């Protein structure tokens, strides 16, 4: 359920504003609110908040602070820099800490002229290190509709309209002025919208995380029946994403393959234990039953309309197909096999060969890479093999990171 921010109000008691300017800002805030509410990626949302804050208030820099326990996670953009992620303690003695803890906005015309008896103070350390000069500073709380303070939005150096087109860092203060009352209200309205958008993105991420955790548990249940482990699932899903990345698939497709691939063997739930755990070779009849697990997995997963589950179903069905058509269950050949199936086929075989099991020793890694190369065009898609080789260093890093405890 999405939260909605309070409507924007330009009244401000007795304060008088230019009606046309106020109307333009109001309309712009509505547009910004729509853009914020439609963003689902946290990093892009944070970038959008600080970019719009700078544009709406004509300031030189902006920072966004998100409260995480006794710390503030600090995202800063000053002039044309990239968004940087830092952390600092939450303390009422700092300007932003005071705003987060009290919920009071602070509009400071010159941070170097603050009275010494205030409960907060400006820290000039960054200015000294960079040669930048902060003068006007506006800090407003990120307050959700329930009144909870999630962090703060901080704007620095409101630029004068008559400033030169280009300013060096040490010239900015000379051309800055205090933030107006209207700009304070604009910043507070934007911060309210930002708080709601941030909560909604976090809620989506929490729901997604819970959904994916459920999927992983289902996949793990199938693997445990076949003496494989959660580490196998983690490794092969990472391998699959690395291959997808090397093949140039978009980030959304990479993520789908990463989360869908652990369900590749879920159909083994439907295979009798006598066959699944048989210590010796399977009879032709038993092999025929075993080879049904891709179809069983597809039947289980394809009933969902979820994009992720549909991708999982496709992978479950096709990860035992071989590029030359000798695989199962349908004997698909070449590009008849969906790319997802061709990717996971290689990732799964690599990890199976590299893993020690009660019934076999792990292969040497160089030997496995030679095996993959020798089966290019027969078992594996040559393009997938090439991508696998390009991602070799990342694949080996994943292999060593997720090892079963001995």
Question: What would the principal axes of the Cα set say about the shape?
Answer: elongated
Number of DSSP strands? Answer: 7
Please estimate the helix content: 40-55%
Structural class: alpha+beta
Average pLDDT confidence is 86
H/E series, N to C?
A: HHEEEHEHEEEHHHHHHHHHHH
> Strand fraction band?
5-15%
The span between the termini is: 45 Å
- Helix segment tally: 15
Compute the CA-based radius of gyration: 29 Å
Low-confidence stretches: 1-16
**Main beta sheet strand tally, sense and closure:** 7 strands, antiparallel
Description:
- The protein has 406 residues and is an alpha+beta fold.
- The protein has helices spanning 19-38, 42-57, 95-102, 125-130, 181-225, 230-246, 251-260, 273-276, 284-290, 293-301, 307-318, 339-354, 365-374, 382-390, 392-401; strands at residues 59-68, 71-78, 84-89, 106-108, 137-143, 149-159, 176-177.
- Strands 1, 2, 3, 4, 5, 6 and 7 form a 7-stranded antiparallel beta sheet that branches.
- A hairpin with a 5-residue loop joins strand 2 (71-78) and strand 3.
- Helix 6 (230-246) packs across helix 12, helix 11 crosses helix 12 (339-354) and helix 12 runs antiparallel to helix 13.
- The longest helix has 45 residues, at 181-225.
Keywords:
elongated, single chain, 406 residues, alpha+beta, 12% strand, disordered N terminus, 7 strands, 15 helices
Summarize the structure.
The protein has 406 residues and is of the alpha+beta class. It contains 15 helices and 7 strands.
Topology of this structure?
Elements: H1 19-38, H2 42-57, E1 59-68, E2 71-78, E3 84-89, H3 95-102, E4 106-108, H4 125-130, E5 137-143, E6 149-159, E7 176-177, H5 181-225, H6 230-246, H7 251-260, H8 273-276, H9 284-290, H10 293-301, H11 307-318, H12 339-354, H13 365-374, H14 382-390, H15 392-401
Antiparallel strand pairs: 1-2, 1-6, 2-3, 4-5, 5-6, 6-7
Helix pairs in contact: 1-2, 1-5, 2-5, 6-7, 6-12, 6-14, 6-15, 7-11, 10-11, 11-12, 12-13
